[in-house]
């Protein structure tokens, strides 16, 4: 019973990353959105989620779509991780990216908005 309560408490925090796309060229096609995590200490970059064929609307990645298994999180309370959103036009050249501020391990399960502009 105690283990079930602890598991529920650990998973109670939402992990949502929403990517907002602004394309300043009038492009009206679809996008591929890739979500990475970088460890600022080791410079290890890991693809944690990806969506293709997305219109220019905000793209939401929810908890069960984000896998942090390849990140090797360290529980040291040091701000060392950041989410990076990379947006790529699927039918024309062009891309853009932006990222969150540095986060510690506990903050990785928060809700974040990332604004990406493509010129």
Report what the structure shows:
The chain is mainly beta. It is built from 1 helix and 7 strands; from the N terminus they run H-E-E-E-E-E-E-E. The protein has one helix at 2-11; strands at residues 16-23, 31-39, 45-54, 59-61, 81-89, 95-99, 111-118. The strands form 2 sheets. A 4-stranded antiparallel β-sheet has the order 3-2-5-6, with no helix packed on it. It has a 3-stranded mixed β-sheet with strand order 4-1-7, with no helix packed on it.
Spatial gap, N to C terminus: 54 Å
Compute the number of helices.
Answer: 1
- CATH fold-level assignment: Immunoglobulin-like
- Runs in which pLDDT lies below 50 for 5 or more consecutive residues are 1-12
| Strands ordered across the widest β-sheet | 3-2-5-6
Using the 3D structure, state the CATH architecture.
Answer: Sandwich
Labels describing this entry:
three-stranded mixed sheet, 119 residues, Immunoglobulin-like, mainly beta, 7 strands, four-stranded antiparallel sheet
């Amino acid at each position: 019973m105690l283990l079930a309560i602890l598991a529920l408490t650990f998973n109670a925090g939402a992990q949502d990353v929403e990517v907002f796309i602004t394309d300043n060229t009038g492009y009206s096609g679809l996008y591929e959105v890739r979500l990475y995590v970088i460890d600022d200490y080791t410079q290890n970059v890991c693809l944690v989620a990806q969506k293709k064929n997305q219109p220019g609307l905000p793209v939401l990645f929810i908890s069960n779509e984000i896998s942090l298994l390849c990140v090797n999180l360290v529980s040291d309370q040091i701000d060392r991780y950041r989410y990076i959103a990379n947006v790529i036009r699927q039918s024309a050249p062009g891309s853009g990216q932006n990222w969150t501020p540095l986060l510690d391990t506990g903050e990785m399960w928060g809700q974040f908005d990332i604004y990406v502009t493509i010129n």
